[in-house]
Amino acid sequence: MNSLKLNSRYSLHFKNYTEELYKALIKECNYNLLNLSTLNTLLDDESLTSVSNRTMKAIKDQKIFSVLGYFPTISVELRNRGWVEKRDPYRPPINYLQYLKSPPYMVNWVESPPLISPMNEYEGAIERLKSLQSWSILKNKRSDFIFVTRKRLINWSSLSKFTCVSQMTRHIFCTKDGLAQCLESYKNAETNLMFPRCHYIRTEADSDAFVEDYITTALVSTLKIIVKSIENNKNMFTADGNIPYKLIDFVKRCVLKFLNKQKAGNTETDIWKFNSQKEVWNEFMIHYKKLTIDSNAKFNQEYTNELELDVYAKCKYLLEEVKIYCPQHYIDGITNTWIIKPTSNCSGHGIILSRDLQMIKQKIPKSDISRNNYILQKYIERPLLVYTCKIDLRQWFLVTNMNPVVVWMYKEGYVRFCTNSFSMGNMHESIHLSNVRLQIRYRKIRNSQVPAECMWDYRELQNHLRNIGQEYVWDELIFPGMSESIYAVLQAATDTSFYRDNTFQLYGADFLITDNFIPYLIEINSIPGLNPSTSVIANLVPMLLGDIIKVTVDYKNNTNADTGLFVKVVPEKWKPTSAAAVDSGNPFNSSAAGTANYHTPFTFDYHRRLVSLRLHRYNVYKFAQ
Q1: Where is the signal peptide (predicted)?
Q2: Is 121 helix (H, G, I), strand (E, B) or coil?
């Protein structure tokens, strides 16, 4: 079945899509609960022979498939290619009787959208009889292709090496702590991999590293506040100011110390002497907090033009120098906000935003198997806003090999909106966390310009970008940037992944776009969220599933085959321009403890050119406003 035709059948609108899908699901439930013996419906001899011959031919051609879970589109696509499904009639993909008794909204949480079938009751009964006949032949035969999104459903011990299966055996990058540790060596390097720096607190040394990062960020933020205020013609000096002028000198001395350490390659770990000089740092934090929350904060020094020029010149110089050694300075903003994520939760549950060092330290004790563990990730304080609201992107990608890495990016996906206008002065979850199951609570009180389901598809975002004069950034920055980051993650994970031949997997990556159109990878999900919780997802997923078959079946047999909206990431585009080695210990391989592994940073002239191009266009755009 052509994926475009399938998609056109799914022109569902948010006002009616739940009702339409529910009708389709109930129809399917009824057909599968029919008592065939009471219908006096049997396959005639010709039909029995036809089904048996088709099944035997599929065995010979190695075209037997199984679907573990509810993915009717996969079944339709494979049957249309001459494959035969091995389907156990006693193990249905969903509990049909339960869904018959469920309210309509429950259809939003099935694994993938139901198919709107034109079959009548008689045709449905005939299809079940054909399936039963095939099962009688196939029940002791192996499947050649298994589609499943939950690894636990696979019996790995009995799985034939010739069976193609849609689950990889291990992928550490799909856990919050695994991804952070996998990319630990890249967090302070200038690479094409855009990933907010993380801290996974396992030891006292990890805690100290976070404190150093936190303090450094606060010092640099102070410079930003001073420079930005003066550039905006805001007077920061008065004789009765509420912040001591000596703070500026203190910050300049500390930043110079940081720069000297970086330039000299000093490996000193306790640069700020936080534990032995807590009073000094507590005083600094009090004044720094005033600067971030009090718009009237001023330094207690009589204003003169010469003073202002001198302070500006020195702070501006230091700020430009710091940028060389702090690749993520742009996303840091000025409030030093960090996002605290439980490693075991999903869908936004348990996430906390905080800028208070003591609160963070209390929340994040060293890792312990007896309690929740957390990842600290630098919050991106300068996100791209649409209608004043924060958005993020769910990008699907398909991995068909890990040795070497072969990855396919999908050219469609969905854009999730936060319901209320962005502000770093308000930490409410409706403003900062875009997870679907979380934002659904706030749809009725959303910003009036935000779509009803708090979601767009990529085409709608691209239209918006064109409307604001940024028609090039999707093709030149955002999509290539996401592709580069995904490829870099997979390359970084090759040493910790166990790859089985005849394996592929669909993943869902979450990206946040900065206000200068650079995509930052937030996390990767092994179960990529195909349930039709919105009409946007309900429209996209059947097309996506159809295109997966195009890549994993059609393209596998014919490299000239149509791959739908999947585009292959070509490794030649990611050749590094230099071979600088980065030390990266592998925390997941106990046999490698105490040894050093090395990765080459993924640094590309192509990426730098795009960033420069984007910065130019962004500045023009801002000036025009």
Answers
A1: none
A2: helix
| Alpha-carbon dihedral angle through residues 127, 130, 131, 134, given to the nearest 10 degrees | -160
Q: CB-based contacts of 526: which residues, under 8 Å, 6+ apart?
A: 151, 171, 174, 505, 507
Cα separation, 156 vs 432, whole angstroms: 40
pLDDT for res 366: 57
Cα(148)–Cα(94) distance, rounded to whole angstroms? 14
Q: How far apart are CA 78 and CA 65, in angstroms?
A: 8
Find tokens 């993020």 and name the residue.
392
Between CA 491 and CA 500, with CA 496 as vertex, the angle to 5 degrees is: 90
Span 85-125, pLDDT tens digits: 999 998 999 999 999 999 999 999 999 999 988 888 888 88
Q: Which residues contact 457 (CB under 8 A, 6 or more apart)?
A: 412, 413, 414, 415, 536, 539, 540
Alpha-carbon distance of 353 to 376, in angstroms, equals: 10
Residue 518 gets which letter from DSSP?
-
pLDDT at 9: 47
The predicted structure's pLDDT at residue 240: 94
Instruction: Please give the C-alpha separations between residue 391 and each of 151, 310, 457, 464, in angstroms, as whole numbers.
Output: 30, 40, 12, 13
**Cα dist from 597 to 7, 53, 61, 195, 405, whole Å:** 46, 55, 44, 20, 19
β-pairing, 389-402 with 505-513? antiparallel
Instruction: Tell me the C-alpha distance between 171 and 179, whole Å.
Output: 9
221-251 burial, b at 16+ Cβ within 10 Å, e below that, comes to bbbbbbbebbeeeeebbeeebebebebbebb
For 459, phi and psi rounded to 5 degrees? -60, -40
Residues 6+ apart with CB under 8 A from 468: 621
Dihedral (CA of 550, 26, 96, 127) sign:
negative
pLDDT score recorded for residue 157: 87
Query: Please, which pLDDT band fits residue 45 given cuts at 50, 70 and 90?
Result: confident
Looking at residue 578, its pLDDT comes to 40
CA distance 450 to 544: 25
Q: What percent of the chain has pLDDT over 90?
A: 62
What are the start-end ranges of the H helices in 265-356? Answer: 278-293, 305-325, 329-332
* Residues in contact with 123: Cβ distance below 8 Å, sequence separation at least 6, in sequence order: none
DSSP 367: P
Both tokens of 193, joined, read 């991999």
Neighbour tally for 390: CB within 10 Å: 23
pLDDT at residue 343, rounded to an integer: 75
Cα 135 to the center of its chain, rounded Å: 39
The two structure tokens encoding residue 14: 């948010």
- Of the pLDDT bands very low, low, confident and very high (cuts 50, 70, 90), residue 586 is very low
Give the residue from 44, 48, 46 showing the smallest Cα distance to 136.
48
Contact 412, 540 (CB under 8 A): yes
Distance, CA of 227 to CA of 288 (rounded, Å): 14
Q: Tens of pLDDT along 505-526?
A: 999 999 999 999 999 999 999 9
Could you give the 3-state DSSP secondary structure of residue 305? Answer: helix
pLDDT, average across residues 6-27 = 80
For residue range 258-300, list pLDDT tens digits in order: 999 999 887 777 788 877 888 999 999 999 999 999 989 999 9
